[in-house]
Amino acid sequence: MKLLHKLAISTAIAAALMAGPASAAEKIALVVKSLGNGFFDAAAKGAEEAAKELGGGIEVIYTGPTSATAEGQIEIINSLIAQKVDAIAISANDPDALVPALKKAMDRGIKVISWDSGVAKGGRMMHLNPSDTNLIGETIIKLAADHLPDGGEVAILSASSTANNQNSWIEAAKKILPEKFPKIKLDAVVYGDDDSVKSTNEAKGLISSYPNLKAIIAPTTVGVVAAAQVVTDQKLIGKINVTGLALPSEFKKFIDNGASQGVALWNPIDLGYSAVYISDQLIKGKKAEPGASFSLGKVGSIKLDDNNTAAMAAPYQFDKSNIEKFSKIY
Ligand code: RAM
Fold it and tell me: Taking the complete model, does pTM exceed 0.85, yes or no?
């Protein structure tokens, strides 16, 4: 090897050693309820988009437990604290169980927000709801009621029993039922834990327990697919309408085969994107306090209420007329 060449190589090695390992300017962890959920994969795509758009070397760490449990998330939070991330943006499996771990993160200077599924006030600086909670509660009932002019029995297949987002929507739905949908009877609420197998079994259980069931409302993208598959397999299309919150790319086939008349959802890509926009502003020193406004980049902006929460946008509805178009996006 020529001397000059050798010299060039050793200079490059020395420079690399002096610079140390490449480090991102900001490390933002996007912690989800569980991995392997298409809804969260779409949110992670948006988070990456925001990081790129904001520039300055933001690293997004997309992580979550294999099943939707608070214990799994606590382990992850502790490891993110050890990694000294700058922000944790979490969709929580339990509003209360995560508070001590998230408090510890905040004590160490890590900015903490919840998005999608909220954490109790003491465990986060602010919470981003996808849409207004009452609006979602009313929407999921209306999706079923619109196809039941004479009323009828419905049941809810939810995610985990401690998921704050689904629980708040179900509470809002129950509140509006007697007032706006007096002919709709809610037979039961069951929990599939955002696990396909459990959701399938719970859907089967509902169908055998309630022979007059006219609709299954699943306000979870995992549960709604499982329920629609059961209705399809049991040849109940036309008898039981499956509705709720669904990812168009996963659910299109059930609109096509008639297992569902229609579903709703907000844009999950925008939600992950917004979570990173907010985290970045907090890292840069912006205070989360009632009345504060945060930019959501191309998505718009939000203003925090008295509980430091805000909502991103209204849900869209999908049916035969538009599911094709949206299924190509998310
Ligand atoms: C599932 C998750 C998520 C929820 C969506 C609608 O993917 O439970 O938290 O927002 O459904």
Answer: yes
